[in-house]
Please model this.
Amino acid sequence: MTQEPEQAVEEQDARDDDDAYALRPKNVTAILYAVDTDDREQLVALLEPLHPADIADMLEQINAFDRMRLIKLYGKEFDGDILSELDESIREEVIRTLHPEVLAEAVRELESDDVVDLLEDLDEAQQEAILEVLEDSDRVAVEQSLTYPEYSAGRLMQREVVMAPEHWNVGEAIDYLRSTEDLPEQFYHIVLVDPKLRPIGNVGLGRLMASRREVLLRSLISETFHVFPVTRPEGEVAYAFNQYHLISAPVVDENERLVGVITIDDAMAVLDEEHEEDILRLAGVGEESRLSDTVLETTKQRLPWLAVNLMTAILASIVIAQFEDVIAQVVALAVLMPIVASMGGNAGTQSLTVAVRALATKDLTGSNVWRIIRREGTVGLVNGAAFALVMGVLEYLWFGSAVLGMVIAAAMVINMLVAGLAGIMIPVVLDRLKIDPALASGTFVTTVTDVVGFFAFLGLARVVLL
Amino acid sequence: MTQEPEQAVEEQDARDDDDAYALRPKNVTAILYAVDTDDREQLVALLEPLHPADIADMLEQINAFDRMRLIKLYGKEFDGDILSELDESIREEVIRTLHPEVLAEAVRELESDDVVDLLEDLDEAQQEAILEVLEDSDRVAVEQSLTYPEYSAGRLMQREVVMAPEHWNVGEAIDYLRSTEDLPEQFYHIVLVDPKLRPIGNVGLGRLMASRREVLLRSLISETFHVFPVTRPEGEVAYAFNQYHLISAPVVDENERLVGVITIDDAMAVLDEEHEEDILRLAGVGEESRLSDTVLETTKQRLPWLAVNLMTAILASIVIAQFEDVIAQVVALAVLMPIVASMGGNAGTQSLTVAVRALATKDLTGSNVWRIIRREGTVGLVNGAAFALVMGVLEYLWFGSAVLGMVIAAAMVINMLVAGLAGIMIPVVLDRLKIDPALASGTFVTTVTDVVGFFAFLGLARVVLL
Model:
C-alpha cells in the first residue's frame, strides 16, 4: 500500500466537507472484496483504521451471509466494542457466529455497563455463556445490575466510580488517582461521598487540576449536581442530562448509597433512541424496527398498524355508506369528498405532532394546555376558513354549483376546526391515561377527521341538495 | 419558610420517582401568584432554586403579558444563562423587555459560544446593543465567530480552549493550569498543539491526573481524536459526537490552526434540535414551530403545507372524476375507494419514515439500498396480499359482489406494492438530489398512493363491471 488508510480517510474528509463520516460505500466494497478473496491480511488492514461504531454500521449494512463470512475471517481481531455498537437485532446473530474464545476475549475488554447492555437482549443460554467468561468480580457486578428494571438508571450506569471522602483535599485526591491501577477509561468528575457512601457533590477534573494541593475538595463542588436513584427510567435520566447540561451524575440505591455513575455519552445514546422510537411510533412502525430486519420481521412489525388502519378506514366507509342515496344523485360528491377528509387529516397530523413532541419535551403542561388548545382551535378555524374559500371557488369553477361550493366550504371549516382540537386533545388525554401519545394518537386523530369530514360534507349535501 | 425550596424539590424528586423534572405546574402557579401580587421577594425565592433551563421553560409556558410583568419584577436577578436556554421565538421579546443594564450584565456572564448563539437570531439593532456591552476582547471573538456560516462548527464552538505544547509533561501542564486565572467553566481535555498551533491530540483530564508529573503528555493521548474544520455543518458534528462517543473535539481554521473546541453538551443540543426538526418536517409543520408561537405565526407556518396537500388532494379528485360514469352506476365504489387509498397511504408512510430515518443516521447507503428496496417491495406485496384477502372477503359479506371483491383485492395489492416502493425510493432520490427527504417525501408518497389507489380500483372496476 502506498498510503496509510487512516490518512486516506482524513484527506477525503478534508475534501468532502459536508460529510464527516469515515465509512463510505467504496470502503464497504473493498471490505467485501477482501472477504470474497479470503484475504485476511487485507481485511484486517481495512478494518483496523475504522472506529468500532463504523465497523458495526458496516456489519449492519451487508447481508447475513457476508456478515458470517467476514466475522469468521476476521477471527480474533474482533473487538468487544463492535458488539456494543451493534443493533440488537444483529447482535444475537453475531454472538452465535463468533468463536467462543473470541467472544470471551471480546467481552472481557468491556466496561460493566456495556456488558449489561449486551446481555439484556440475549436469551438465557447466551447470557450464561457470556457470564461464565467474566472474572468473578465483574460477573457479580453485572448480575447485580441485571436485577434493576430494564431501561432504568441502574442498567445504564457503569459501576466503576471514582469517589473521594468529603474531607479530602486536592493533593490527597491526586495521590489517590496516581496510585490507583484500575481507573475507568473515561471519567470527568470525582464524586464526594459522606461516611455512609452517600454522594454529596461532584468535583470537575478541570477545577481540581487548576487548584493547589491544599485546597479542600468540598470547596470545588460543581453548582449543578443531580443524583439518580437506580430505578429512575433512562428516558428521564437522558432528559435531565440534556436539560441541565450534565456531564456525569452519580446513581444511588434505595439507601442513597453511591452504586454507579452515568456519563453523558450514554445519556446521549438514550436520547437518540427515544427520538428514533418516537418517530417510528408516530408513523405506525414498530419501534424495534431496524434496517437490517428481514422481510418476515418487517411484515410482522407493520401488519398490526395496518390492521388498525383498515378498521378505521372501514369505519369511514360505513359513514359514506349512509349517504349512498345522495352520492348516486350527485356523483361530484364522490369526487370531492376525499379532499375534505384529506385536509382534515393533514391539519390534525400537524397539530398532533406538535402536541406529541411538546409532551415528550415536557413543554406542554397543566400551565399552558388550555392556551394551546385555544390556539390550535383558532388556527384550525383560520386555516379552515382560508381553504374553505379556495375550495368553494374551485368547486364552482369545476362543477358550477354554488350550493355545492358552500357545502364543501362549510364542511372544510368544520373538519379543520375539529382536526385542530382533536390533534391537541387526543395526545393530552392519552398522556394523562399513561398511554404513549406517539403510539396511538395518529390513528385516533385521522379516524376523527375522516369520520367528521365525510359526515359533515355528505350530511350537509343531503340536507341542501335533496 | 420552614423548608429550603431546593430541599423540597429534592424530596419531591425522591417521592415522584417517574419524573426527574423540577418545574411543576404547581410551582408555575406559585410564581404567577407572586407576579400578580407584585411580591418580588417571593418571586426571587421561588426562582432561585430553579436551574436557568427550567426558568426558561417556565417563561415559555406562561403568556406574553405575564412574561413581561415577571421579567420587570425579577429585575437585575435575571441571569444570562436563562437567555441562552430560551427558545429563539421568545428570546427576542425577552431581550426587548429587559432593562439595558440588566441585559448588559446578563450577557457579560456568558461564554463566547453562548453569546454567538444569542446574537444569531437577533436583528441588527439588537445585535449592536449587545456587542457594545461586551469587553473588547470578547467582542472581537464574537464578531469573528459570526463570520463563520450559520449552523457551522465555527458557530457552535467555544473559543476558550485549554491547550499545551506537545513536548510538555504532566507537571508542566498542572502548573500551567494552577497559574491560569481565566480557565473555561468546563473542560475535559487538554489539546496538544504543534508549534504552528495545529492540534495533534487530546489528553483526557482523568489520565492526566492519574499520571506522575514527569510523564510526557504525548504518551497520554486519547485513542479517539476528531478535528472539525470551522465550516463543518453542526449536524455532522453532532453525528460524529454520537457515533464516536466524543466528549470534546478541537475546531481548526482553514490553516488547520486550533481556534476553538466543541463539547458534547452542545453537540447533544444540536442532535436534539435536528431530531425535533425531522419530526416536525415529516408532519408538514414548519421546523421553526414552537409551542409559544402565536396563532398568527402558527397559521402562517402550517398554511403552505396544507396548500401543497390541497393540490395533491385535488389531483386525486381529478383521477376520481375520470370514473364518474362507473361510480354513478355502482355507488359501492365511492364507499370502498377511500379504503384502498388509505391503506396505501399508511403503508407508504411506514416505509418512508424508516427510509428517512435511515438516511439521517447514515444507515441507508449505496451498499444496501437495493437490498432495502427489494425488502420494502416484498413487504408491500405480502401485506398487500394479506389485506387484499381480508378486504375481498369483507366486501363480499358487505355488498355481496364477488367481482367487486376481486377488484378491491387486486387494487389493494397493487397500491401497497407501489406504496412500499415509493416509500423507499422517493426519499432516496430526494436525498441524492440534495433535497431534505424529511421535508418533501410525505407529500410525494401520499400523492402516489392516492392516485395509484383510486386509479387502480376505479379503473379495474370499469373494465370488469361495465
